[in-house]
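Give me the 3D structure for DUF6268 family outer membrane beta-barrel protein.
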Amino acid sequence: MVPGKHLALAILLFITAAAPAQEEGPEEEFDFSNLVPAEDIKAFCSPRILNGGPQNLFSIGYDVQGTHDLAAGGYQGFPDQDIEVNRIREFRIDAQYPVISKNNITVNLQFNYLRTWFAYGEDELLVHPFLQTLDENGLTSMSFSTVVFKPLDLDNFLLVQAGASLNGDYTLGEMQSLSHTRFFAAVIYGWKPNDRKMWGLGLSRTYIGGSLNYLPVFYYQYSSVDGQWGVDVLLPSRADLKRNFGRKNILSLGWNVQGNSYRLNALQDEEANLEPELRRSELRIRAIYDRAITNTLWFSLQGGLRYSWDFNADDGDFFRSFFSDDPYLFENEQGNPLFAQLSLRWVSP
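Predicted structure for DUF6268 family outer membrane beta-barrel protein (349 residues):
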């Protein structure tokens, strides 16, 4: 053996002999007390369904209604008056901001603004004060609300909305007193059997019919297996059948009801102790085409027939049943024109 190899072997044997033998100690313990069994981890359903379409965050829209007749009933010595409305224009803003977005709760703040202008024929001589205030002041509606989606588990949820609105023949330059704020609310208990369907039943305090009312609510959302068809229903507010042409083109057919009670400030009569409020409610039978410009910016075009459900005036704010035959302060009649609406939407895909 080569001397160098003998030396290397001797050094190796020395190191091996000199190294202390490693003692095999007891197995290291692990604390399992902080682990949660899989069956105890609670899962929650989400507030959206598959292929349900983008969620609106901010939209701005412009609405035009065509020519129609408008008849105002007699009030405080002013006789009935019939005129022709050339058009009604509306500008609207709808915003939704998620302040809390967790698996176990979602909270959104909503803001809605609707400004309505009435344009009459050039030869119309306005005598009735109701027609005059519509011409000079128009109608304004602003509302703030909170929407809470609280999943209870994978299959059940609560949906709660509460808000306040200020409606009347006022402008932003001459605001209406906050003492005439109107409050609305709704609560729904729902079921979500799978990722493509959710539905619920509830109760609402609403002005959708023009006057204050308490109505049952039915909520239903559905998307087909292939994602091409969908249903979006919130009765009595809206119902739409949707056809998805890919992820960026949606056609909807259906209807919606919008309404509120508007304080007519120009018609207040302190001597007679009268506080007229316009019960405005309308049904819109419509078709809507939504198209994506980018992933977050959408273009929306809708059109159809606007049917006037209620346009009468009451004295003050109070509950009026749909089956009530109590007389109004004065009654008005509107024609039912066609309408078109164009809007841009910023969405969450």
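The first helix runs from residue 3 to 18. Let me know if you want a second pass.
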